[in-house]
Amino acid sequence: MMLLAKAALGLGTTIVLAGAYTMREGVIRIDVDEYHAGGSHVHMWVPAAAVPMAMHFVPAEHMRHVSYQAREAMPILHAIVKELKKYPDSEFVEVDDHDQHIRVRTHDGRLQIDVDAPDQKVHVLCPLSTIEDVTTQLEEHGPTA
Amino acid sequence: MLNRYKVLFARTALIATAVLLLSPLGTLAQATAAPASSSQSTASASKDRWLHVRVISSDAKGETVRVNVPLELAEKLLPAIHQDRIHDGKVKIDNAHMNDVDLHALVDAIRTTKDGEFVTVQSNDCDVRVAKQSNHLIVHVLDKENSKKSEVEVKVPMKVIDALFSAGKDELDIVAALHALSAQGDTELVSVKDHENTVRVWLDSKNVTD
Predict the structure, then answer these.
(1) Gap between the Cα atoms of B75 and B173, Å rounded
(2) Distance CA B45, CA B127 (A)
(3) Whole-angstrom distance, CA of residue A45 vs CA of residue B81
(4) B72: how many CB neighbours lie within 10 A of its CB?
(5) Contacts of A90 (CB under 8 A, 6+ apart)
(6) How many beta carbons lie within 10 A of that of residue B50, not counting itself?
(7) CB–CB of B185/B47 below 8 Å?
(8) d(CA B182, CA B204)
(9) Which of A71, A111, A140, B131 is deepest in the core (most CB within 10 A)?
């Protein structure tokens, strides 16, 4: 009984610490629903801290390829994220008409993009710090690195 | 007795483990529930200057567009864009589309002249007024051609115009203009009203539209 309790405590502590570390930056949520024939339905939920960690395991050649393809957008993306971090709770774009709603905002240091239209729904929620980590890693693998 | 304590300890450890294991789920639930409760305070705590654009369409679709841009963000972002005519926060002007008008000379003339009316047109179709007033360039157009009137009013501080034309001859320095704009007080820059749309562009310190 005693041994079991010690093992359970050790396991529990490890899981909690790992969970707390993984969840420290929140989660990335991507929900895409296209309401037409053959439309895709993507529902992704990933711990934000796991993404930069997982990128370390991506083969360097793939990282270089992605970095090369994104080379023009990278400085802009980096500048946007760096500046957006100064505005953790702000509305930037809101478009409403009778059946569509688009919203781009930051909330609690996370970038939130919502598109609600009759034929599709897109909801993206991603911590700005994660986007910054990802862009930094891509820049490190870029042609100029 | 000792055995009783051992059992008690073991039970406590198991309960503690169970609680520890379940606690991240609670945190997770809060994290996922957070986006739903999005009615956060959007009051800007700093002295940031925000450029707001609001378009309200009164047609059947009733479209509303609200854009709020911190000037500092725009100032930092523009130099990173290198696309077509935009480089380092400056936009190249194509001389071919300027009909040989020397914009710099024109701006210089307006800057050095005293306050007054430059253009005043009053007709049955429309009224046009271009004036310099209290260090602002004002353009006012009232279109009376149709039964549905439309009105355009543009009011730009002269310092912003100066900054805009402070780059080379064939360039507009957008970043410098934004910087000059950020030094201005709360002001309405553009107002367009017609039977279908109302457009407002203004500057203040709030990060939300009215």
Answers:
(1) 11
(2) 42
(3) 32
(4) 18
(5) A105, A106, B42, B44, B68, B70, B207
(6) 24
(7) no
(8) 9
(9) A111
Contacts of A4 (CB under 8 A, 6+ apart): B10, B14
Cα distances from A138 to residues A64, A69, B107, in angstroms, run 8, 10, 44
For B:56-95, CB contacts with A below 8 A are: 57, 60-70, 72-73, 76-77, 79-82
Q: How many CB atoms lie within 10 A of CB B59?
A: 10
Contact B161, B107 (CB under 8 A): yes
pLDDT digits (tens, 9 = 90+) for B146-176: 767 899 999 999 999 999 988 877 889 999 9
pLDDT digits (tens, 9 = 90+) for B100-137: 777 788 888 888 888 988 889 998 888 999 999 988 99
* Strand B64-70 versus strand B50-57 pairing type: antiparallel
Q: Domain locations in chain A?
A: 27-140
Please report which confidence band the pLDDT of residue A143 belongs to, taking 50, 70 and 90 as the band edges: low
Question: CA-to-CA distance for A19 and B117, rounded, in angstroms?
Answer: 69
Q: Residue A12 and residue B21: Cβ atoms within 8 Å?
A: yes
ipTM score? 0.77
Nearest to B155 by CA among B191, B205, B113: B191
Report domain extents, chain B. 1-40, 50-204
Residue A142 touches chain B, beta carbons under 8 Å? no
| Chain A residues within 8 A of B67 when measuring between CB atoms | 92-94
The alpha helices in chain B, defined as continuous H runs, are 2-33, 71-77, 103-112, 158-164, 174-182
Q: How far is CA B131 from CA A43, B114, B119, B121, B140, in A?
A: 56, 10, 7, 12, 9
Q: Which residue has the tokens 């730009």?
A: B156
Find the Cα–Cα–Cα–Cα dihedral B143, B146, B149, B152, rounded to 10°: -30
Which structure tokens are listed for A91? 């509305």
Comparing CA positions, the residue from B77, B58, B78, B45 lying closest to residue B208 is B45
